[in-house]
Amino acid sequence: MTNRAADLAKIRQALDFAIADENNNAIITQGDSLDQLKFLPDSSVSLILTDPPYHSTKKANIRGDRSFEEDENFLEWIEKFASEWKRVLKMSGTVYVFCSSQMSARLEVLLSKYFRPIAQITWTKPNEPGYDGWKGKMKKEALRTWYPHSERIIMLEHGAYGSWEAYRRSPLGEYLLECRKNAGMSMIHLTELIGEYGRVNRGGAVANWEAGRNIPSPEQYTKLATALEATGKVGKMLDYEDLVRPMQVNKDVEFTDVWDFMSVRPFAGKHPAEKPQDMLMHMIRSSSYPGDIVLDCFAGSGSTGVAAVRLGRRSVCMELDEDWVKRAAHEITNAKIDDQYQEPRRIHHMSKRELALDSLFD
Question: Where in the chain are the domains?
Answer without folding.
Answer: 4-158+246-341, 164-243
